[in-house]
Batch of 3 targets.
Target 1
Amino acid sequence: MTTPAGRGRPRDGATDLAILRAGLELFIERGVEGTSIEQIAKKAGVGKPTIYRRWANKEELIAAAMETLIVDEAGWASQEAVDTESPYALVEAAIDRAAAAVTTVQYRALVARVFGSAVSHPQLMSTYWQRYILPRRKLAAALLARARELGTVADDVDVDVDVAIDMMVGAVTYRVLQPDPPDVDEMRRYLRAVYRQIGLLPP
Amino acid sequence: MTTPAGRGRPRDGATDLAILRAGLELFIERGVEGTSIEQIAKKAGVGKPTIYRRWANKEELIAAAMETLIVDEAGWASQEAVDTESPYALVEAAIDRAAAAVTTVQYRALVARVFGSAVSHPQLMSTYWQRYILPRRKLAAALLARARELGTVADDVDVDVDVAIDMMVGAVTYRVLQPDPPDVDEMRRYLRAVYRQIGLLPP
């Protein structure tokens, strides 16, 4: 999918993986502009031609790395759970894990880099969006719909479900990039406040 | 303030300004990692020593550029207006201008770069925060407090005023960095939905 047409599928899985991992690590550490194919080749222990046989440029390589290495299971709930369990209980059960996940320096650094390249290299945001964000948004939308059925989220939120999701996700990603990033305990309280405000936790 | 101690204040205002403008433009276009003192010197039409006499490195120069060039008047309301006028009316009156401002490619690109450097170069986010964000947050907090007095914003929002502000600002900055950024009309509707959700516009 991310392999350019005409270049064929990569044939060596282990080499591929080493290159993609090196690419993602360098992207997170230095951004697109600070990363070169030469650095990726060196870090992965391969020659530049090995990389260019697979990807046309660093943007395609980094997009492919996100496509391959970023896990797409949303983690905090299955569609079945959303359909049958209480939204309050589901959200409450997910808070510890979410607070731990979004406060790691790896998460903060990846979000910073993806946001940072959104205007200059929209392909990277686009891949991250498809791969990581959309599956989570689908679940969040189902959860909001269910909460509305149950009457814990007001009707007017449902009208703008994408806005409500942006308000939750936007607040959290914005918060972890602020000058004084929260620790796990503070993030737990923060997430509770956000979910309460939207109506996904009791007032 | 951003001039390193011992280097003295810059003496040539026009040269300073040319250097700072070049630094900010290159930062927005290429990020911190893609910008060098050499490029800034070339763009500003000065020698590298002229820059190094004023700033120790590119991070300090870019921070100084934000300090100097980013206008700090929040624009959408004065403290007096917040104290005396209806929050609904103030928010409504600010929407056209805000929608136009946040949908420009310059705004989107600057936000992307500042967020993008938040983990690798926290000094830049810190300067942006002090210079641009904090004055706006102060006004927004006053507006929320006033709306709460008037009963249009629920009490529980007031408990977490910083969270409510993050939800508004976070949503908007997140939205303009998404793969399909909104035009001015869509942003107007989007802002209305966000303010309605918080209680700063009528349901």
Note: The longest helix of chain A spans residues 122-149.
Target 2
Amino acid sequence: MRTHYCGLVDEALIGQTVTLCGWADVARNLGGLCFIDLRDHEGIVQVVAEPDADTAGNAEVIAAAAHVGYEDCLRVTGVVRKRQSVNEKIKTGRVEVVATQIELLNKAEPLPFHAHENPGEDIRLKYRYLDLRTPDMQRMMRTRIKLVQALRRWLDARGFQDIETPILTKATPEGARDFLVPARMHPGEFYALPQSPQLFKQILMMAGFDRYYQIARCFRDEALRADRQLEFTQLDMEFAWVDEKIVQDAVEGMMRDVFREVMQVELASPFPRMTYEEAMRRYGSDKPDLRIALELVDVAALVKTSEFKVFADWANHEDGRVVALRAPGGATLSRKQIDDYAAHAAKYGAKGLAWLKVEDAAKGRDGVNSPIAKFLDDATLAAILQATGAQTGDLLFFGAATYKTASDFMGALRLKLGKDLGLVAEGWAPLWVTDFPMFEWDEEEGRYVALHHPFTAPAVDDEADLRANAKTAVSRGYDMVLNGNEIGGGSIRIHRSSMQSAVFDLLGIGAEEAQGKFGFLLDALKYGAPPHGGIAFGIDRIAALMAGTESIRDVIAFPKTTTAQCLMTGAPSPVPDKQLAEVHISVREKPAA
Amino acid sequence: MRTHYCGLVDEALIGQTVTLCGWADVARNLGGLCFIDLRDHEGIVQVVAEPDADTAGNAEVIAAAAHVGYEDCLRVTGVVRKRQSVNEKIKTGRVEVVATQIELLNKAEPLPFHAHENPGEDIRLKYRYLDLRTPDMQRMMRTRIKLVQALRRWLDARGFQDIETPILTKATPEGARDFLVPARMHPGEFYALPQSPQLFKQILMMAGFDRYYQIARCFRDEALRADRQLEFTQLDMEFAWVDEKIVQDAVEGMMRDVFREVMQVELASPFPRMTYEEAMRRYGSDKPDLRIALELVDVAALVKTSEFKVFADWANHEDGRVVALRAPGGATLSRKQIDDYAAHAAKYGAKGLAWLKVEDAAKGRDGVNSPIAKFLDDATLAAILQATGAQTGDLLFFGAATYKTASDFMGALRLKLGKDLGLVAEGWAPLWVTDFPMFEWDEEEGRYVALHHPFTAPAVDDEADLRANAKTAVSRGYDMVLNGNEIGGGSIRIHRSSMQSAVFDLLGIGAEEAQGKFGFLLDALKYGAPPHGGIAFGIDRIAALMAGTESIRDVIAFPKTTTAQCLMTGAPSPVPDKQLAEVHISVREKPAA
């Protein structure tokens, strides 16, 4: 149907006849002389229909060209010639195609919006096929495709086995984020869509596959945040007979190779490494964005006897943290701006945000402007300025709360300040975060919860040791972080049944419950399960980072909205009761509160 | 953790120290001299623990070896040496590893079954991890993995874009085989799991992706036959700006390349082609197994005036068929065997199965043995023998019914006879079946149904023509058949909204219903949709064919049973009412009748 792609017509083809297929990007009719920008996925080329003696018998062509409208689907045959007015903006800008035939393959009705408009995301999602036709969306989507291709090629070449695991899996009691699927053949029973193939990939290691990967669809039924989707895609990997170093070295090398191939950039070698403790202390985050040079500075030791009660209380609290963050040049921030930062911090748990402007560092107390200065004695003030390295023109923010809360909101503040003040360095900042706590104490539930997941191995190999030191136990989990995003998370797994039972027990999962939920795993661990570990990478996020977009929706062909809808197809939708009866369910009269 | 794979230890390593990880396949203790067959995915190597003066200090090794049991997970370090009694059955049979260290990584409890037993498929599925460890399962699963890798490599190299489409899609009213998923955020509304990405891939062509593929998970909620799964995997492909020839040439070449790479076999070039009409006439099937040389022979013209009423009735029926099938050497079949064939044919709709043994072809009527011979006059008998080429020692089966039914059961009989009589040729017999009817008349529903699907383009490009000749209309669909299996099916699609509406109308889908179900497609077709077409291949079936197994469960890591259960995890399972309430559904008190 065509001899060339529109976007690849070049000077080497001058004088040749080509047949192109594409959409009319723009059509201009200049009194009998018609120009059509014909577009396919490779780009745009200019087509001309002209009443020239050299192209005799082209009255039909001109008539056809005169009726071309936006997004009409065309087949054009013509002769390539040098273009008089070169268009440097497009690849094909030195040539044009003089049409000898224009075939209208499909007429487009008036469009609901035009490519150069920004009609709002809802309209773009409704007419997704039109939105995806735009060069920018094509570029972003194709970046994702290249990423996945490069990953697969890398993995295939190294003996990783691409194995599909089920989408219709076991519903676990209390699987609060499970999507449920009623089973037609088993009235009252349900499948669940997998939140990840975690247990299946562990089973695959016990089944002798040695090295596994899957570009796996995962599902999480939860209120959507801007950067989440109900269904998302992971590069899921697992290795048998390994320790952390083997897994980390392998996937770090993979990421370097893939970024080199897709983005032509060289990531650090090796990636920096940081413990969870250090990441929280310096950056208030377990996924620090190292492109931002700002760091948190602990000042609890300086304010233990301060008159400022909030500081002193938290400085003396067993689990308290008092921390300062220097905003370079921040002394020029208005009261309104400072309030906005306080509001931002409040979203992450801050009850208040103290601040101190350094208007003239040389003047000591007289040079600072702060509601809390009066509570700080001279020595304390000087010590704080010294500890934070605050200079004339800077501003200090202070957070005081539990360690976790203070870290959270000061970490969030650091990110926002970094962006607002233009302190985010160009480039790519990967790192490993390691040595996570094994457990977190959940105040609400009054029990330990797993910081990674309950299959993560503890650093100690002895159940009694783990039980005795659960509060401070460190896991063999690790996260890969890139530019402040957790792009991968993994661990060495528990491979002995007795240790797995001990961890379930510590997590408050009784023997009977464990057997009901995870009996097949506990069984499998009894038949010679090898030591194993792995990692999973968020493909949507990595693709978005590579494509240079904030929104993962730009790298998903048919995303859902934050209200969990597909605006193009209209999913979800009501279903006749007859169909529900066939799968033995009914809609509840009263929606759950 | 290891220096080499067990199955790859060879003579080049003699004298070297290696560290291996694997499972104890067999362990034999011969009075202080212990042999362990250590197995990983690459194969088995013999490990020896011996009280030899040259390997001093090995009392610990012998003690460890003496306690090794089946499927214990071990790490062994030792020195490779030439083996005295060569074992030609295994790759490593010329060497053995003299252990200097044996580390028990994980003890295996007594196994529920042993690899050499056949405990029945239910037990194998429950302990899938043990079953998958066996060399035969590893070989079959890895064949599938190689197939998918080869397909991807081929497609990636040719610019096909691997694009993921949603798993949570729109529930279509009357989607009788849809899996439903209640929507948490939208009480009373549901998603459906896709039966295929058909509409999404068409939309992707309208969205400018030009060439698409996906190894796509599809779902069909129906009573399971032995060769079906609730979820299955397709290689889904679509091309923009193409006709049949472009699609067929491309994927036929792909299959040849992939079979060459994975199986080292050369498929026919080009594939034979056959219309639907010819396939039904000669083989009684739209997916003929061409490895079987037997063909159906129409004899209606010979029996129109026969005294055998069944023959005469169907021979004179507008939609009747009377057909003979020669079973070479079938004259030796017993009455019991013939009855069994009749029972087989009955499963496919036969009301009876006439037969005729040719005991001596030279003797004419006196040489045949048949309950129906007396109804056939000499000329008819002779004509039938001639038409079918029946020889002394052959048997003829006869079918008479509607064209469809007679074809179905005689086609099924042909397959069974071919296998039973050893008439299935070795090798691979691919072909294209084309020119399918556009519609089939559904007696029960009293309306046309689509033979492929409602998006398949008719051969005629004019709606009025299609409406006028719906009964005989031919579609632009095509199937790829291999050894009697439909391994791929595709078509050129409708790309104009008006034609799509006409086809919906002919299928009894009214304008309003069409808008409700497929409105987004009808919309998309209005904005310059390009001509497009594609195909989908059944990966599970192709993998099973390559692996040489009848059961697709052998090439699926975690399959479900014919009662839709995962015996390993116990899916599906009941769910607490609280969880159902959260997604606004309840279980019906009374299961649907």
Note: The first helix of chain B runs from residue 59 to 66.
Target 3
Amino acid sequence: GGAQLLIAGPCMIESEQHAMTMAKHISQRVKQYADNFLWVFKASFDKANRSSGDTPRGPGMDEGLRILERIKNEFNVPVLTDIHESYQAKPVAEVVDILQIPAFLCRQTDLLLAAAATGRVVNVKKGQFVAPHDMGRPIEKIREAGNPAAMITERGTSFGYNNLVVDYAGLYVMRQHGAPIIFDTTHCVQLPGGMGKVSGGRREVAPYMAKAAAAFGVDGFFMEVHDNPDQALSDGPNQLNLPLFEELLPRLVAVREAVS
Amino acid sequence: GGAQLLIAGPCMIESEQHAMTMAKHISQRVKQYADNFLWVFKASFDKANRSSGDTPRGPGMDEGLRILERIKNEFNVPVLTDIHESYQAKPVAEVVDILQIPAFLCRQTDLLLAAAATGRVVNVKKGQFVAPHDMGRPIEKIREAGNPAAMITERGTSFGYNNLVVDYAGLYVMRQHGAPIIFDTTHCVQLPGGMGKVSGGRREVAPYMAKAAAAFGVDGFFMEVHDNPDQALSDGPNQLNLPLFEELLPRLVAVREAVS
Amino acid sequence: GGAQLLIAGPCMIESEQHAMTMAKHISQRVKQYADNFLWVFKASFDKANRSSGDTPRGPGMDEGLRILERIKNEFNVPVLTDIHESYQAKPVAEVVDILQIPAFLCRQTDLLLAAAATGRVVNVKKGQFVAPHDMGRPIEKIREAGNPAAMITERGTSFGYNNLVVDYAGLYVMRQHGAPIIFDTTHCVQLPGGMGKVSGGRREVAPYMAKAAAAFGVDGFFMEVHDNPDQALSDGPNQLNLPLFEELLPRLVAVREAVS
Amino acid sequence: GGAQLLIAGPCMIESEQHAMTMAKHISQRVKQYADNFLWVFKASFDKANRSSGDTPRGPGMDEGLRILERIKNEFNVPVLTDIHESYQAKPVAEVVDILQIPAFLCRQTDLLLAAAATGRVVNVKKGQFVAPHDMGRPIEKIREAGNPAAMITERGTSFGYNNLVVDYAGLYVMRQHGAPIIFDTTHCVQLPGGMGKVSGGRREVAPYMAKAAAAFGVDGFFMEVHDNPDQALSDGPNQLNLPLFEELLPRLVAVREAVS
């Protein structure tokens, strides 16, 4: 019962105009599921770990926060973004409701502590190199810093080279940490480094992965959505387009009911 | 729509009495789902690749076939068993409806051809070391031998040592082979070699894995069921007990409807 | 000190003429290393688990044994070949000195027992899905059958899809089993299924892998050698050509001395 | 020919006294290998990504740099340390000769650029989740920032949970990037998270791994050394003790000669 977290938005703040447009698209589509999903708008101001130095990174922190604040106010929606170095935690927390720790950085103690100190909810993505039972450690670091509001997001585990696998059984293991488990629908179908200078992905598989996670029983969903993913400035191959997003929501609701 | 395959039975034919008892238990529980599941009784006459030479293997082929035939007749149920060397295909096919190729043996050409030659349905378990896109090869070997009735069963993929992971995205990839995809609910939570002389397992996770597979959309389920798995002569840690089995069936039906 | 085992020959008996030619080539090149290597000629009479059913398998058991016997006599060299079903153990053991168990089959109890019963040396390839500490189990099966002469050959471990990795640290772990550890120089650089209907490979890396194994300290080497690997009927991409083979032998000797 | 890089020192600056003692111990042992190894002293001022928040992190940047500078001057040795956020690059580069990028952070563009901008040598540890062919990307980021002096250090790849494997074949692949390849002798035998709150390790295997890397042909070695590793404040299970370190050096020299 109750509404689940639905973290949705474009991978990157590509422009103020585009971010606003995406917020509008998503807002229109989630409205009718208000009993099922609590929507949180997501977008990154800086893609700080792109495979290559040649690819776009985003508008930067100051401009990004201005745009996120505008969306927060105009759409009356909580917002989430990711931080990369500890100095960013404080200014970002003045705007966003959920601070996200990228998967590669999930063991960086200073970053976790800086995020924890803001008092905001902290969403830690599970490192591609971290065992499910070990995800208790970053959560403890946050709690021991006095912040009880930590979440874990599953986004796939290293499986050979240029491939990820989702260990659904690991979702069960992670429940023991007592933190909400969010399922990242779109990064889990990424093919890291699989296209040379950028990562590949399998957008068409993402909805299946989300439905499976709903059947497994997770506490919320994360998904990147773009109105024209083939032209997206980052993560194009795995972002959902709007028709896939729209079709997915009622399926997730139905599957959740089927296992309740 | 339509009934899905439900391959269910104890891992090993522990005795004639026990196999009959298990068939009765399962029969009683699947009866009410006749519109949803076509039950096939499963049990092995020989555990031919046990981790250790010290552990029980089963009654052998002749005695095992006699028991399977009795169950087939008394319960009016199709039966499935696995074969290990090519000479077994012909005598086994005189009794069983589906010949199963064990995962370790899924690339043994002679075994596949001998199974194909019987004209029976051949269920090939996906090797723990085989990529989803490569599972077309054993299916082709069977088809080129004139037998169109090949199925693929997912039972998990090697992930480091003493662990398996199910690549649900691989279920999508395997659809391209044009063969039914069966989900092995109980071997996929095995921990191979994880208990020294025998393999460990995580029975409590198995129902979640099956529900996730139902949401993903598979063509049938395989599951080992035991009335007292802690005393089972093989695969105890991952076989479903009867309450778990009973609770799982309506959930699988509901999830399937949710994604249809 | 002492000579190490050097198992070398073509992957497949392509023809009587070719097998004889390869034996001659290898014989000429190993002669000067008689103090360092005890050469065993290796060739398969049946590639019983080829990826695809369309590719050549070899001359079969009877014809293959005739050719192996001729090589054994004419070159005064022990011979090794692999078996695939238990009925082959007895006739094969009448000719060959070392029976080899393929990696996929390393847990097939009947095959191990049939090989053990011949009294010949049994070389068990480590399954791509088996942990180093678990390789004690097949060795025990052979010993408990009364045959003390079991060896383990490392040939790489599943690492994601279509790739293998050699866990050199696992060589250390496997020493505890008290059996000689042989390093398979050429299968460890295989890319299983990586070329569609056949497996790919990286021949140019194989000598480096062998030198690393020599430095680690193994008890012998296995390597497939072909006078024209690009035209080989199987495993072309990873077999050594004759120049690579010839250059490798003195390096292995030198490295072994460096760590003694 | 020529001297190879030998990066050696304790994992953490445990105290000024201990760091000085270790520098003295190592200095005495490397002296006689001046033709073979160019020693660089290594120690971390901050273990910034420890598994648990409860474990010691080190003296911090200011105090750490003071101690490294003292060692640099008193022992006339180049020094290396690792940085974790971009603001550290400039002050650290005023003291150290080689800036090291931790493996988890090898894709953090700002950190790589800040390190590159100092003009110092930048040693990038290969992420546990990065394919060998993809390690060209961080090296390019550094070079495109105008710094040609980038190195790659292999320290193992994620292999299942709580385990690493070294893909020696990947060393061959990484040569194409045109940067020196350093082999991390002691982290590659780490068992990440394997002891609950801290990582485990297999110190006794480390020398074998280094000798194998020498035979493979690398450009230098990295190894953590401690006079009492069982009492070390971090990475105790995998640091070399002084006898292992002392025995290893002549072996590495001999193996290198054997393959030259």
Note: Chain A touches chain D through 38 residues (CB under 8 Å).
